[in-house]
Write a structure and sequence with these properties.
- This protein has 116 residues and is mainly alpha-helical.
- The protein has one domain.
- It contains seven helices and no strands.
- Helix 5 crosses helix 7.
- The longest helix has 17 residues.
- About 5% of the residues have low confidence.
């Protein structure tokens, strides 16, 4: 727990612009670029850890078993698989709205992998 608090404090104090780089406006290709870069990979993992935990814990669905926990890397892999599985759909959304919110892609990924 102390390590998590330290990492979050470090990000907020010394690297706020990197945390802000991962938003609803970050495209899947940009996200892949950040994830592939060793210097920004941890930011992506941390972002998806929080995003995924919020989706699973905040959901009224009983689709994901309570005894399963995911890491930020697992959430990111789910997100990436979902994006690639429905790339045409998400590219069309991007063309229409100029954004592909990661939360939408990840929610679809979770629903696909753990249907009710």
């Amino acid at each position: 727990m102390k390590k998590l608090i330290f990492v979050l404090a470090f990000f907020l104090i010394f690297c706020p612009q990197k945390l802000n780089a991962l938003t609803d406006w970050t495209t899947p290709d940009e996200m892949e670029k950040y994830y592939s870069d060793e210097s920004t990979e941890l930011y992506v993992i941390t972002y998806f850890n929080g995003l995924g935990a919020g989706l699973v814990l905040g959901s009224d669905d009983e689709c994901v078993p309570d005894d399963i926990a995911f890491t930020g890397e697992e959430y990111y892999r789910m997100y990436r698989r979902e994006y690639l599985r429905n790339k045409d759909l998400y590219d069309e959304l991007y063309d229409s709205f100029n954004a592909i919110p990661a939360v939408i892609v990840l929610q679809s990924a979770i629903q696909y992998e753990y249907p009710c």
